[in-house]
What does this fold into?
Amino acid sequence: MLQPNVLEISKFAVLASDDQIVRTTRALESHDIHVIVVETGAEAKEAVLAIIPEDAEVFTSSSVTLDSLGISAEVDKSGRYNSVRAKLALMDRQTQSREMQKMGTTPDYMIGSVHAVTETGQIVIASKTGSQLAGYAAGAAHVIWVAGTQKIVPTVEIGLRRIEEYTLPLENSRALIAYGMKSSVSKLLIVNDEAVHGRTTMILVKENLGY
It folds into this structure.
């Protein structure tokens, strides 16, 4: 694994310019991924909650971005939604593991974030377990991603570098505190196009959110 240096960290944490956002939005829309651009995290939260009907079945993927915006807490604890994660917390992983996997893979709405968005309209997501990838790729009926515009990169190749050199070291630090172990890029999902019209929404936020 390549170690991050000051130059790479600063490069991969810089918010995209308006021109980059416009190029990215046009490319994503051409791939049938609807884009909403907002100025602040508060506006992003409003946009997410405006999309999801009350009482809808919703699964919140583990996400520093969602947690920082209060989206995870709103969905999972407010009682306004049918939270899959709240149900999973009451289940026994030893005896109900397979049922839990199915519930987390095929919700009506799945919310999360991504690790890179390219100016040519691709989404790149890394995972240690892959638990969220099946839902993003096809299992969930609707997918909503929230991402700070510092995650916009020119190409998939640079997006992969961003994950390896910037995202992974930061996630390692978080995972050591949260779980007592490092993370890894065990599985990758690259979304080139959305086959189901109206299924996927990307909310781009002009704030440095997550990593």
Observations:
- The beta strands are 34-38, 57-60, 82-83, 109-112, 116-118, 123-127, 142-148, 152-153, 187-191, 200-205.
